[in-house]
Fold:
Amino acid sequence: MRFVIRDAHLGDARSLIELRKQLDDIHAEARPDLFASGYFYDENEIVTLFAAQKSKIIVVGDGSSSRVLAYMVLNTEKAPQSPIFNYPRTFVYINDLCVSEAYRDQGIGKALMEYAIGYAKEIGAHTLELNVAEFNMKAIGLYESMGLRTRNRRMELLLAEEARGRDGDE
Structure:
């Protein structure tokens, strides 16, 4: 399949919302205890992303129409200087990466990762980073095949059912 990677524009907002819904649905299905069903970006959030100086939104188009097959949000971050780290560092954080369900397993995710790696090198970032849900084995496989390695792991213990939703209710 032929596809084109390009910077997103506001005209892509509807497609970004639809793709984000697919991403949110994956999380809600795998972890309904944690992720709300039916949440997705709205147009205000998309406009805010476009306005954020640290964010770069990339889309993959089908090359022959305006159809968006995938998107990725890259944030350029500067880690605060701290005595526990050897040096201050700049990193690129992949905030979102979603390939439309209809176009998965066609090399689009790999192409987006190659783009992200190239972009991070181009701006002189020390690292390319992301978070991935432990249940998302397909994504983990892709990231590991691209050379990413686990640096730390966030773990949880699900406590009593009654404890859910009480944060901030005091």
Summary: The mean pLDDT is 90. The first helix runs from residue 13 to 30.
